């Protein structure tokens, strides 16, 4: 029986062998590259038809489609990340987290941005000072209830 981790390793292997990008894998099933990448890394579930299509396109065992459609247990290592790219996002939230909270609540009231009704994109943007990375997140505003 394949686990989420097993399927992630298979996806990485086939992606590397075929010289594919996450964008091309996502385009092949008609979904967002951020969401598909997250699902392939075990943090989200693909709709069953999309999971089966991805498994077929990558030449994965049929069981991989079942696993890609299973609801994940969203856990992660809580230690400070040591990968430089991941650490930068940890640092950004550490430095700007309270600022984001303050601005969201000033603009919308006492509440949060959903990470469920949510989408994100990552783009490379040309700049005379060197290329930049643009990360755009959009989440539904969820007001806290008072009772």
TrEMBL record:
Enzyme class: lyase
UniProt keyword annotations, A-Z: Lyase
A Pfam family annotated for this UniProt entry: CYNS_N
Domain of life the protein comes from: Bacteria
Documented EC number(s): 4.2.1.104
Entry's family note: Belongs to the cyanase family.
Name used for this protein in its record: Cyanate hydratase
